[in-house]
């Protein structure tokens, strides 16, 4: 059964409250304004217009394992893009201190503080959507960028080590006793695995792979379609097969 992983807001109210505290700490209870309000662990923080962190409220239907990275990545990237957080997996964090004087006085850059809070919310969600064996691989990854790069490297190497196997696999795929729908998905998964390593099959080759694994009961369909294969997309061929 598929598991739902929620980008829950309930687990993180203290972090959200800390951000609000940073933004409003310039004024103390007596109304006096301080040039550097207190931030994380009491360190002074440079002020600017406060931006609330994005609190995720989105479900992801699958847990990342060693075999479903492409499916997981598609869902995760959609959520990250939808919340305008792509920079957290593409760019390094902001500078913690803007200059040596700030470092000497432990004055933390507010942009860094806000970045860290948002980044850790994203880190927590990413980790919550993985199986335990992959979590072990993430030990030592402290930011969303580090986690993302580690996953990309791990799965790219995994696919690269099996590229010859994947090149041969489309030729050996047979429908056999599989349902037609399951067979078509199997072909697509194999084609997608090749594509992740730069081995992109043309529309014609994809369709040819489908036809090659069909049993003799589909010969009439294959013969009638093969003469016009350039006129069909993979999706159209799949739809025609399923409707036949």
Automatic annotation (TrEMBL):
Pfam family, one: Retrotran_gag_2
Highest taxon in the source lineage: Eukaryota
Protein name: Retrotransposon Copia-like N-terminal domain-containing protein
């Amino acid at each position: 059964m598929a598991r739902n992983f929620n980008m829950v807001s309930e687990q993180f109210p203290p972090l959200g409250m800390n951000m609000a505290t940073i933004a409003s700490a310039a004024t103390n209870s007596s109304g006096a304004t301080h040039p550097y309000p207190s931030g994380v662990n009491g360190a002074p923080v440079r002020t600017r217009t406060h931006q609330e962190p994005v609190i995720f409220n989105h479900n992801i239907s699958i847990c990342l394992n060693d075999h479903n990275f492409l499916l997981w990545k598609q869902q995760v990237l959609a959520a990250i893009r939808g919340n305008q957080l792509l920079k957290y997996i593409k760019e390094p964090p902001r500078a913690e201190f803007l200059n040596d004087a700030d470092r000497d006085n432990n004055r933390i850059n507010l942009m860094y503080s806000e970045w860290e809070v948002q980044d850790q919310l994203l880190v927590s969600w990413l980790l919550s959507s993985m199986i335990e064996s992959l979590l072990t691989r993430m030990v030592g990854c402290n930011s969303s960028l580090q986690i993302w790069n580690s996953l990309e490297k791990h799965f790219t190497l995994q696919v690269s080590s099996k590229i010859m196997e994947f090149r041969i696999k489309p030729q050996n795929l047979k429908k056999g006793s599989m349902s037609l729908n399951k067979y078509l998905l199997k072909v697509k998964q194999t084609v997608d695995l090749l594509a992740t390593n730069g081995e992109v099959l043309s529309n014609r080759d994809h369709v040819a792979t489908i036809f090659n694994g069909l049993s003799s009961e589909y010969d009439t369909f294959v013969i009638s379609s093969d003469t016009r294969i350039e006129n069909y997309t993979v999706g159209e061929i799949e739809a025609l097969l399923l409707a036949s």
